[in-house]
Design brief:
Largest sheet of chain B: 9 strands, mixed
Structural class of chain B: alpha+beta
Structural class of chain A: mainly beta
Radius of gyration of chain B: 43 Å
Oligomer: heterodimer
Distance between the termini of chain B: 59 Å
Strand content of chain B: 5-15%
Number of strands of chain B: 31
Largest sheet of chain A: 8 strands, antiparallel
Number of helices of chain B: 39
Shape of chain B: elongated
Shape of chain A: elongated
Number of helices of chain A: 4
Distance between the termini of chain A: 70 Å
Largest interface: A-B, 62 and 87 residues
Amino acid sequence: MSRWGRVRPFVPGTARVVLAGGAAAGLVWLGMTYPVSVDLVAVAGNEPAPVSGTSLATHIDAMCPGPELTGIDGVPDVETRGTVAAATGPAALLPEPATGAGTVRLLAGTKELDSLDSDRPGDLSAKLPRQGPVTLRATGALAPAVATTQEWLTSDEQTRGLATTPCLPAGSDLWLVAGGDGPGRLERLVLLNPGGNPVTADVSVLGAAGEVGESRTETVAAGGRATLLLDAWAGDEKQPVVHVVADGGGLQAALSDTWLVGSTPRGTETVVPTDHAATVQVVPGAVLDGGGTLRVAVPGDEQAVIKVSVLGKDGLVPTSGTSVLSVAAGATGELELPAVSDGPHAVVVTGDVPVVASVVTDAGNGTDPGDIAWSSSAPLVRDVAGAALPATKGVERTLQLVSTEGSGAVTVYTVADGRAGTRKVRLSDDHTASVDVGDATAVWVQRTGGPGELRGAVVSTKGSGDDALVSVMPLEPSAVTSPVSRAFPLP
Amino acid sequence: MTLAPARPDIVAPVSSTGVAPPVVTAVVVSGTDATGVGEALTSVLAQSLLPDEVLVVDRTGVILAPDASPRPAATDATGAGETDTASPSTDPDGTLGSSAEEEPADAERDAAARSEEPAEHDQHRGDDAAQGPAEHDQHREDLADGQPVEDEADHEDHEDRADPPEVTFVDVVATVAETTTVPVRVVTADPRRPVRAAVLEAVRGHPAPDDGVSLLWFVPVGVTPEPGALVALVDAWRRSPSTGLLGPKHLEKDIPSRLQALSIRSTRGGRVIARPIPGEPDQGQYDRMSDALAVPFAGTVVERDLLLGLRGWDTSLGDMGADLDLGWRAQACGRRVVVVPSARMHSAEGAVPATASTPARRRAARRVALARTPWWSTPFLAAWIVVTSLLAALALMLLKRPRAAWAELSSLSSVDPIRGLRSRWRTRHRRTVRRRHLRSLFEPRRAVLTGWGDAVHHSLVPPQPPAGEQQAIELNPRSWLVKVLTHPAIVATLAAALVAAVAARSLGTGVWTGLGAGLSGGELVGTSADAQTLWHAWTDGWSGSGLGGPDPVGPSAMFLAGPAWLVAHIPLVPAPASPAGLVVAVLVLLAMPLAAVSAYLAARVVVTRPWVRALVAFAWATSGVAAAAVAQGRLGAAVALVLLPAGFAGLWLVAVCRSTATSAFATALAMVGLGAFAPVLLVPVVGVALVLAVVRRGVRTHALVIALLPPVLLAPWLVPALQGAWPTVAAGAGLAQWGGEVPPVWRLALLDPGGPGAPLVWTTAPLVAVGLLSLARGRRWRAAETSMAALLPVLLALALVGPTLRLGTVPAGVEGTGEPIVLWPGTFLLPLVLLVVVSLGRALDRVPLKHLSRTRLAGSWMVLTVGLAAVLVGAGGVAWGTLGDLLSPWKDPRPAVAVEQASGSFATRSLFVVPGESGAGYRLVGREASDVVRPLPQVSRADGQAADGVTALLDAQAGGDGLVAASAVDLLAIRGEPVPELARRLDATAGLQRISPHDGWEMWRVSPTGERDQALVASPRLRMETPEETRLVETLGENAATVTSIDAPADSRLVVAQPPGWAEHAVVAVDGRVLSAMDGEESPTYELPEGSARLTVDVVDPQHGWHVAQLGALVVLGFLAVPFGRRETRVVDR
């Protein structure tokens, strides 16, 4: 058999393998070299709307307590003329542009005090009504990054002080630290219900020896407020801490602390709830020029051993005196803080069990009319926080920031005349920073980096020395996104 | 009872009575040519009892002119007469032919030979002989009378007409006639006339004998009587004076041990029974027969007077019919028709029609029955014929005998009163025997049923090998357990199941224990659906889960409805929580072993060695694509794993021209199922089938059946979907990949689809390599491997193009938001994998193992080992890679009360919300939760339009109540621990009451707000709003369908918690009066007439006709696809 004859039977098979393999290899090469894409959706002609990965908040309800010193039957109202201001943050705070229309309205009941429907950043303000709360209602494109603050300043014979209070959305487990004993020390608890249903609040007061008296139940009408005079059952408690638990909805609460010694007004302050109970509480904006008092409450069933440290611009401030406090379970305790000059500081409270904490400072000299300032532990700023700054004449404000558990970087936007100034701030671990916001109508903080836990407060002062009026409000996070603000069907 | 006139004494047997013998005239009937005449004539003249005369009916049509005759021939004055073929003048040598001198000697010899021969017979013959040559003139008679020739074929004329006779008819007859002393006369006849008519005319024209009874013996061409046939017949005639008609036993000419015909057996209704069946072995089983209803023409002996008295045959009834008719009439006149089995004749095939072998004969027999039945019973008999024919046709259709069924149906045309009357008039006579006295002559109905049963058994049961062979096979009998466990199919299935089980270790045991509720994860969404839900999803104009939509649902729902119903009705087993979910879960989880079973069965057309088939099945079932399909819950791919081998086998049969109609229909049916779940896979199947239709002409119909039937059957769904929703069609049931990375091209080429369940990289490479090398099998260009080699790049190109098809965009709330949804890469890898494993199987199938040298045997085993190793490496990669953890048992997140509300009269829905970074994804779940796999995001679904309402509800804004009322939401569930703000807000919302969490969902019970809804616990699907209150209208069906009684006060309205578009697809009627939806309402609202009435809400099926046609076609296709009987009964030689 010839050579070709021997090879010939194998030609078809070999050719098949070579050709099929070669064609397959060619196809692979083509596919890797010239990737293609065929859009059947476009061919079908029903392209759905572009998908957004972020759900911007579209509806924000927050409530301001309004004039706190009014609304209790049998107790004379104290007229406080104040201002409520609201602001929308710069567009840069938003992860994506907010489209569509939006409004921000300040409502006193059904009455609209002011409204805003312009672009960002924007602000609006109105005078506080004589009675009742003020509701902030932001919708649509203006709902993300909105903040409201009410502020009043009075300096008469009976009442003196500056009260700057952020207006907040509802919560359900609220701790308010303020007040004290004495015949001229009045604590008014204002319960606010932004919801559409009546909400029942269970109010209890913790004192140095544990719970003071029986807890009380108060029902707050939808969209309304209820004011309780704590002195009615905890008037003698030297270091009260109020606990409000809402049932059947959410509430907001504010505690007004008015101090009158004899005929000398020693100050007033309205506090909002502290950060929720935790083993670490950070109280930014503690004005410790003349020293201060840390008040803690232990909500749980175990005694707390608390370590206190003070942070300043240069880090941990070495202080003399006791820095450890032991507080019984379900009770409150106080620790005197040493005077630390050179501006506000941050107080870090570390407990072995969850606690809540605030620091109170007395701006006065103890004999003349003065003012008190409660600095509550502030919530963590994870993304954006802000505060509207009412244009109260003579009031100067400083933004206090503190980073714990690591360094942090933020961008601070100060809005004035409708324009936002930007300042980047880097914070080392356990360091504070102070930003002068001047006459800005709002200040916004956007966290940009760093592993640290960032908190802040706005310290408002008027005057100086013993006559100074001081108020500290925690920097509250502002909702930019909402997990439920935009609904879409799941496949 | 007197059956016959008194037998003349002269015809009584000589031995007993000494009377005169009959005069037997043998009538030899030619065909249209001279072929066979000589043989027939010879056989007649070779009888032990010679006929007294022979009459040859010449139907060749050759009219011999006197001057053209090669020999002198006397023609009578009329031009038609008899001619003597034995004229001395025609005898060239003077030794042939009859002569007056020889005749007495011949007569004496015959008389000596046949002692029973009557003396008169000899005398008669002597008289004939004495007439001399002049009286033996051949008579020629033109019998043409202008009658039309019957359409029934004369099977006596079966001889090859194409061959012209080399000698003339006269030569043939003369040649034979010269050898005998029996007078042979030739009578010419018009060949266009029917045989029997020609014969009758010849008989009439032939003078009757002066004395004695004249018997006619018909011997047509093609029939060769044995020498003793005539004597047996005549003897039988003489034994019974009433016998008038006698028939012989016809045997096959070539194989005389087989029967050809005996008598014509019929029921009273004219249904002819084939007994014996032509070809039946003659074991003497019919030799005791005597009386019969009729006998075939060929070989019949009949009294001349009887024949003429009955006016002969009614040739309008054809051949067999005419014979049956003649016998029937003879019996009615009191003359017996007798079969004489001892008279044997050898008959050519078809020469003796005694069965209804053609539709014409079947009709003729029916007409005979109608003509011979009393006039008053004719309508009843006709009705009986119609009913039995229809039933028989139906039964034959069910037995998949369409030709026989058509023949039954065609017999209906016999019910023709005009022809029956004509036949009755033509052959009118006075019957002398009562009908009931003839009862025993007819076949009982039992015989018909028995015949049918035998036929069915014959077609179903293959002939068993003789017992000896069977025993030889089982020399080493094994237990049935060993047989089962060592069966290649079982081994392949168990091995595939083992690989699947090992790979499924990552899923945990929960997927098995929680199977009753189905699975979720991957493409499976988990649902609580039963057969009714699926069925209505397919039929209702408004369908789908949640609020539904007008888009037609794919036929996969219809296919799943049947199994879902089945699993819910298994006796002694509690109904599963979700029958549809269970069916889907079983299909997905058992896809690999099921694929092995399917592939093993299908591979028999490609591979002959069982163990190689098992390897092919194992390789197919444990491929990376199969594992990925299971791991990702791709129902469509799982179905394709099972059905694709069937389609491949069907196409292969077509390609090698071995397909049958059944295989083609079965393939088409499988492809319909495949198209319902994975329509895109129809593309290569239809493409290949169309190519085969072009290149394989012999099986073009089969190829076209496979190519066209599936798309046509699915057209009611495909056509509307292709007009606007191509991606939906392409995605099928779970063939879309939502985001994620498509594996690189080289991995696709290695049959690796990527994703969960994909095997270890490169473990698929050996299979690809050996599959490719296997194409080298075969040393001819025209081998199947050439086609496979050509197909391989095509399928690879499809596989590479598949993942580039963008079907949509991953919506918010799902992993991979914003990424493209593409066709799953494994979709088109499936046919490629099949091609590769078949290529490997064919190569291994041909590896020689016998009669080899040791070296070559080692080489063969090495090849087998390499193939096996390649498959095992792939399976090992699958087992190692695991099936991932996407699948998990599905648990209905709704609390029991919500499930009860959804399935009860309220028919409420639950709103499930999953808050996330990009917003709150929501899903409305009602009783219509019919999506078993994740559907593509569709704009037309009403659920998307409820987004604002959901947002309002979650934000506690105005509008939330509207959603509750418009969608009958009674439960709000939020996934996980909701943000405190949201929980507080919901707690504070009127109409929401928090209930205890369930299975990781925070729950709020939703109740209507406002004064109107205080009476109701939840907002129902159907509610009647009266001026004073809101009442429940119970919902019974899917999508608000119901039938219920209402009592409506004045100014009442029916509000349906469905999207507005629903009203276009629903018919709301009160006491049959259709109501129109009010304009401008948020939900479909109808004004109700006052008073008690019956309310009907029906969601109409806009494609009802199509759906019915689809179902009907599926049933028919299924019937046609079911193999019935043995394969050899279905295969048509090509």
